[in-house]
């Protein structure tokens, strides 16, 4: 299976004074070690090791230097002096990702400091790389070398990652069978497509999984609120983490089955609603409450994307406007007498009542057919300095405590020795 490698961009969010100092220490020690090994003209790993072993650096940084300096000194680098803005490199496994959807800042990254210590720091991920980050977090992509650097007072971590991506078959848009993917409340995910004669077939709903996720979320809210009232912040956090792991397991199960569904269809294309478009065109809080219900929407999307890519199945997004309001048979707007029921208002339409999520999924699939789709990847990167993770993926549930950041003693913990 073909492998693809990409550099994932993480921006560290406001490290406090203590952590900022630790980052600067790491950078200083790294640059001094690099300079010393360069001056000593170390052309082998062992020669480099003899120099860098003295420095207060993690094994991950030392190992990176052992790989890097011999390349520098073996003639491939013709400068007499090093630039002073070399990024700090870490070998693979030095860096770790953690995801806490319950926090306003969802992603955390573990950065090696020196041998026994590392720092956990909240980070923004590039929204266009969310599928990659999700794959790394799930262990379905492999991390390679990382580079830590600072520009204009902001710290960044660039992480190389490799994953398997199957080549997509060359089929024109009209040869493909669009499979509408609706993510909602009654059913966590609903998929449906039309057969050759145009009839909607094989609707599949993950309603029980939706129930399971709702139950876990409810447990999370009531339990953590109670624990927080008692002042048991730490217990609340680990309890919340455990519940989110369970939700993530449900997500992985469902997204795997969505991709399996697509694999069973000839020339499939998975069609999702474009979340960016929704956010730009709707009142955010209304949308969040009504449709997202605080679920890990972007997490589901990212998992579907990377798992589909592993199987060579294309994923497209469409304008979601009115996909839940319109009737898939006649196009007129209807209404929902109950959450799971769509009723068409057109007296001449054969549809009287229809499963609402299936109706939405067919509309999403049809929108691809009508040519409104566009590739997510064709769009320019949208990450801006002020970008907000919670707005990016709608998975911010409480917007409350940033517990990783508050739990200072947990951030500087004993780590593993890499060397
Ligand atoms: Zn109708």
From TrEMBL:
Residues 410-419 have a biased composition (Polar residues). Residues 297-364 form the Cas12f1-like TNB domain. One of its GO terms (molecular function) is DNA binding. It comes from the Archaea. It holds the Pfam family Cas12f1-like_TNB. Residues 367-387 have a biased composition (Basic and acidic residues). Residues 367-419 are annotated as: Disordered. Keywords: DNA-binding. PANTHER family: TRANSPOSASE, TRANSPOSASE-RELATED. NCBIfam families: guided_TnpB, IS200/IS605 family accessory protein TnpB-like domain. This is Transposase, IS605 OrfB family protein. It comes from Natronolimnohabitans innermongolicus JCM 12255.
């Amino acid at each position: 299976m073909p492998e693809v490698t990409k550099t994932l961009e993480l921006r560290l969010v406001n490290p406090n004074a203590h952590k900022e100092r630790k980052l600067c220490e790491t950078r200083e020690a790294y640059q001094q070690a690099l300079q010393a090994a360069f001056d000593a003209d170390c052309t082998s790993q062992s020669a480099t090791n003899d120099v860098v072993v003295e420095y207060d650096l993690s094994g991950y940084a030392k190992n990176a230097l052992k790989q890097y300096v011999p390349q520098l000194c073996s003639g491939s680098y013709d400068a007499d002096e090093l630039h002073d803005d070399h990024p700090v490199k870490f070998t693979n496994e030095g860096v770790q990702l953690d995801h806490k959807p319950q926090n306003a800042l969802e992603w955390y990254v573990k950065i090696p400091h020196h041998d026994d210590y590392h720092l956990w720091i909240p980070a923004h991920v590039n929204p266009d790389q969310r599928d990659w980050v999700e794959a790394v977090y799930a262990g379905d992509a492999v991390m390679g070398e990382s580079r830590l650097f600072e520009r204009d007072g902001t710290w960044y971590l660039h992480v190389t990652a490799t994953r398997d991506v199957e080549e997509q078959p060359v089929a024109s848009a009209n040869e493909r069978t669009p499979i509408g993917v609706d993510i909602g409340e009654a059913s966590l995910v609903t998929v449906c497509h039309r057969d050759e004669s145009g009839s909607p077939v094989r609707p599949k709903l993950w309603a029980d999984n939706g129930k399971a996720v709702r139950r876990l979320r409810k447990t999370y809210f009531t339990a953590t609120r109670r624990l927080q009232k008692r002042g048991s912040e730490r217990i609340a956090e680990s309890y919340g983490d455990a519940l989110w792991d369970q939700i993530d397991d449900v997500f992985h199960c469902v997204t795997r089955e969505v991709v399996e569904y697509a694999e069973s269809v000839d020339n499939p294309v998975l069609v999702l609603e474009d979340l960016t478009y929704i956010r730009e065109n709707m009142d955010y809080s209304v949308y969040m409450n009504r449709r997202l219900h605080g679920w890990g929407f972007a997490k589901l999307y990212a998992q579907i994307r990377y798992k589909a890519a592993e199987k060579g199945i294309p994923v497209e997004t469409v304008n979601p406007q009115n996909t839940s309001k319109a009737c898939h048979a006649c196009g007129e707007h209807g209404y929902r007498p109950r959450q799971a029921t769509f009723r068409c208002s057109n007296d001449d339409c054969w549809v009287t009542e229809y499963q609402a999520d299936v109706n939405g999924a067919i509309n999403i699939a049809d929108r691809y057919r009508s040519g409104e789709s566009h590739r997510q990847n064709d769009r320019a990167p949208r990450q801006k300095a002020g970008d907000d993770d919670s707005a990016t993926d709608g998975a911010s549930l409480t917007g409350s405590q940033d517990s990783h950041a508050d739990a200072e003693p947990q951030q500087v913990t004993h780590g593993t020795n890499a060397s």
